[in-house]
Specification:
Blueprint: H1 2-23, H2 44-50, H3 52-56, E1 60-62, E2 68-75, E3 85-89, E4 104-107, H4 114-117, E5 123-127, E6 132-136, E7 139-147, E8 153-156, H5 160-166, E9 167-170, E10 181-182, H6 185-190, H7 192-195, E11 198-207, E12 226-232, E13 235-243, E14 259-268, E15 271-275, E16 282-284
Parallel strand pairs: 4-7, 10-11
Antiparallel strand pairs: 1-6, 2-3, 2-5, 3-4, 5-9, 6-7, 7-8, 11-12, 11-14, 12-13, 14-15, 14-16
Length: 286
């Protein structure tokens, strides 16, 4: 009898040990990215120059060479205002963020929380072979072609499987690397092709339509993405602030008064668009 009791207790202990191991298992985000794809062989600036025609024509070209590009994440989908994309900018020779030239969008579909894998400040390297570089509304991006609802081919995000083999993370996130370029109204209206996409800061800025939500509720309860004018040091840039209906703060009320506003400056066919990464991008003016 004692022998059977010992066997039963031993079996229970083994089961408990297995259950505890399972319950405390740590899920490694790196399962979703490549372990190592080599050193950078090109830069974001070179890509933008090499594929300038495809970008400006909102077309795309496939990359067949074994090139690797490096950048640091400056914006992601953490609040839902950016969808299926992260945005990266290049690094200077001294390791600081390059704020003299625009970055590039990197699209990935099949996962709704890219920010958990690629937080702001995460350096990544992308194996470009087999991917496509081009533009969407003249905004530079890396991804894969798709057919839109009108039957036209456009450059959209890559698949999740492509991400797992083509994007590698370099070390731990370094949010201290990420700095925003201060922009004036003139910078935005005159230099959008050079700057977009880029993390920027607007000082002494005021959003029009105070008292309204960032994305307006319309008749019948439908909600629509919305644009708002922003005054920067007294100069108005029309329809600059863009808010998606999917943003967590879409229904928040726009507050009156001058603010310091951070955001991803992008464009659509020459029209500048500023997208907040989260509502925390709006700060009280100091």
């Amino acid at each position: 009898m004692k022998k059977y009791l010992i066997l039963i207790v031993a079996g229970l202990l083994t089961m408990t040990s297995c259950m505890n191991d399972f319950d405390t298992e740590i899920v490694d985000n790196d399962l979703y990215s490549a372990p190592n794809i080599g050193e950078p062989t090109t830069t974001i600036a070179n890509l933008r120059s090499q594929y300038a025609n495809a970008i400006s024509n909102s077309s795309y070209e496939q990359i067949t060479s074994d090139d690797v590009v490096e950048g640091v994440v400056v914006a992601n989908d953490i609040s839902g205002n950016i969808y299926q994309f992260i945005y990266i900018q290049g690094l200077n020779a001294d390791g600081t963020l390059d704020t003299s030239k625009g970055g590039i969008g990197v699209g990935v579909k099949g996962i709704g929380c890219l920010y958990t894998l690629f937080p702001v400040g995460q350096i990544i390297r992308i194996n470009l072979k087999g991917l496509y570089v081009g533009g969407y509304g003249k905004s530079p991006r890396i991804g894969m072609p798709y057919i839109n609802t009108n039957g036209s081919m456009r450059l959209g995000p890559m698949t999740l499987d492509m991400m797992k083999t083509h994007i590698a993370k370099v070390g731990s996130p370094r949010p201290e690397l990420v700095t925003a370029r201060e922009c004036s109204a003139s910078d935005i209206t005159n230099n959008i092709n050079t700057l977009a996409p880029m993390l920027v800061v607007l000082k002494n800025a005021e959003i029009a339509d105070a008292g309204w939500p960032y994305a307006h509720w319309e008749v019948g309860g439908d909600i629509y993405s919305e644009y708002h004018d922003i005054s920067i040091n007294g100069t108005v840039v029309k329809q600059l602030l863009y808010t998606s209906t999917s943003a967590q703060f879409a229904g928040d009320t726009i507050q009156a008064g001058k603010k310091t506003i951070y955001g991803l400056l992008n464009q659509y066919s020459g029209s500048p668009q500023l997208s907040l990464r989260s509502i925390e991008d709006i700060l009280e003016l100091k």
